[in-house]
Known about the structure:
mainly alpha; two-stranded antiparallel sheet; two-stranded parallel sheet; 7 helices; about 10% strand
Amino acid sequence: MSLILLYVYKMIEYMVIAVPFYIIGRFVYMKRKKQQASVGRELLLGFFSLYIIAVASQTIIPKWDAGIISSTGEFYFNVQWSNEIASVNIIPFRTLFLYLQANPNIDNWSSLSMVNIFGNMFVFTPIGIFVPLLYRRVRSLKKISVVALAVTCFIEITQLFIGRSTDIDDVILNTIGVMIGYGMFVFIKRKINRRLKGNKKVWG
């Protein structure tokens, strides 16, 4: 659990730093395009954008370190583009099988296993909720599946060049996570539609 919280804290740090930049950038964009702002949609778009930044910080942004050398007072900034322990797996379910084989008792799963299995699924769940909420054209199962595969494949391919491990099982878990989110969206949408106007479709 402590490892999961560590990742969450790191993601929140990026989100907090990004807030003023996003607000200023969005304001300038809306002014130039002369668009009218919808408070509800802008809030959704803002949360989604910050979420994407948070995910990117732990997936496609290279690991970096910065600070001041105490002995000299000089500023340093290092970016890690390679990693000796990074690996590539293109065999489906191989990594998942190794985790399950090494941890047959769910109660004794290590933090690493939990992060890789549950983390890889549920960190992508918001995509399946936010995308169809924000973009009506992407509300079908087929289109959200394409989005899920495109996003997860892009992340894994990018990780080949930034010193991170690339694993087909991550693509599978990430995609499952997006589909879980989409399932939640469809379920909630139907519930709201039935409550508001019986079986009449109100969301478009």
